[in-house]
């Protein structure tokens, strides 16, 4: 019997945007960029597809590659949702060799050498521990192998930033492979999260293994209901605001439309359970199996990630209106970093957690700082 999943079966295909089912290479190629599809197999057997893109004008520059990693329920496509002003286009236009990564469980990474995601529970037995322990290092190694560079710069958001932190804490040798790391709202600890809805959502999820993989009919229904019921596009952003904090006008109708084409990308419920554990824990630690910790880890409590092991150059961004990631938790993290370059509170009072990805003003508020530090810390 197939594993249960959230998939709505109605459809209204006439209302689908032209690029609803285009993959990453198709989208960026249409915008005039060069793109390549790459595949890696992690040490535990997950098959992950990710992408390289660049502006052909700068092909001969051989600059340090930039690896970009998405947040929960997203994919690398989410970094295109700001349209022509998106981070990936901005990086490519500045001459960088851009690599857009993916995490196991999303629609680019629903394959395994032996497990079937539709029938094998074990496929969905993962959290950020495994994404950071296996997925990120496999993709980083591939980037360095293909480009011939010894270092890569990294930009990651939210859960993706947490996963990169796990890589650098758990496998400290990877710090030497990182030129500079930009952590956008890294969710390493959520003890002081003030988002009531987020806390209610993630605390105590049990019993289901797969969360919202991307199905064509699900996307059709979301787009169709918006049109047939006369729901304004702005209202479709209310789910994001409900999780985070209200920032009126931050997401334009075009951004919202692209967001719901690519979201949700898919992940496991176990990962959300770990989010719930993070809202209750003082530490940045591995998944808590309760009474089974002794059997799994050999200790009564789950091992903590050693934050000072993360010793590459790192720039951390945070929104002053972020209700998911509280400043107290983020400062707890940054105060333990031996090579923190800068802790940046974005200069916009209403800038929230998801604005890092979807805020229309983010290209002006965040991207210039990233480009400035990239030019200082990388080979160009």
UniProtKB/TrEMBL annotation:
GO biological processes: lipid catabolic process
Organism the protein comes from: Plutella xylostella
Active site: 158 (nucleophile), 322 (charge relay system), 353 (charge relay system)
Full protein name: Lipase
Molecular function terms from GO: hydrolase activity, acting on ester bonds; transferase activity
This protein's record includes keyword ATP-binding: no
Domain Partial AB-hydrolase lipase positions: 25-80
Keywords annotated in UniProt: Glycoprotein, Hydrolase, Lipid degradation, Lipid metabolism, Signal, Transferase
Family: Belongs to the AB hydrolase superfamily. Lipase family.
Pfam families documented for this protein: Abhydro_lipase
Origin: domain of life: Eukaryota
Cited PANTHER family: LYSOSOMAL ACID LIPASE-RELATED
Claim: Signal is one of the keywords in the record: yes
């Amino acid at each position: 019997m197939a594993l249960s999943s959230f998939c709505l079966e109605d459809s209204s295909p006439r209302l689908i945007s032209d690029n609803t089912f285009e993959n990453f290479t198709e989208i960026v190629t249409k915008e005039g960029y060069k793109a390549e599809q790459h595949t890696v197999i992690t040490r535990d057997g997950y098959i992950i597809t990710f992408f390289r893109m660049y502006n052909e004008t700068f092909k001969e520059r051989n600059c340090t590659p930039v690896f970009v990693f998405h947040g929960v329920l997203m994919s690398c496509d989410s970094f295109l949702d700001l349209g022509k002003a998106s981070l990936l286009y901005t990086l490519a236009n500045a001459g960088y060799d851009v690599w857009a990564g993916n995490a196991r469980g999303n629609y680019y990474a629903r394959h395994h050498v032996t497990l079937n995601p539709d029938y094998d529970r074990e496929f969905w037995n993962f959290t950020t521990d495994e994404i950071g322990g296996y997925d990120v290092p496999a993709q980083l190694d591939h980037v360095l192998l293909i480009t011939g560079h010894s270092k890569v710069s990294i930009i990651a958001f939210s859960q993706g930033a947490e996963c990169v932190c796990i890589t650098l804490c758990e496998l400290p040798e990877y710090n030497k492979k990182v030129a500079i790391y930009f952590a956008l709202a890294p969710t390493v600890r959520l003890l002081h999260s003030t988002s009531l809805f987020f806390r209610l959502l993630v605390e105590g999820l049990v019993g289901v293994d797969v969360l919202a993989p991307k199905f064509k009919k699900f996307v059709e229904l979301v787009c169709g209901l918006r049109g047939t019921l006369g729901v304004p596009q702005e209202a479709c952003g209310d789910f994001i605001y409900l999780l985070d904090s209200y920032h009126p006008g931050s997401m334009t109708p075009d951004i919202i439309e692209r967001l719901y084409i690519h979201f949700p990308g898919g992940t496991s419920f176990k990962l959300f359970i770990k989010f719930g554990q993070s809202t209750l824990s003082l530490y940045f630690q591995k998944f808590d199996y309760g009474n089974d910790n002794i059997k799994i880890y050999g200790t009564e409590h789950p091992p903590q990630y050693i934050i000072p092991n993360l010793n590459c150059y790192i720039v951390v961004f945070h929104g002053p209106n972020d209700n998911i990631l509280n400043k107290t938790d983020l400062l707890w993290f940054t105060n333990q970093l031996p090579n923190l370059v800068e802790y940046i509170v974005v200069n916009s009072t209403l800038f929230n957690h998801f604005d890092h990805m979807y805020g229309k003003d983010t290209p002006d508020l965040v991207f210039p700082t990233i480009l400035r530090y990239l030019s200082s810390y990388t080979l160009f």
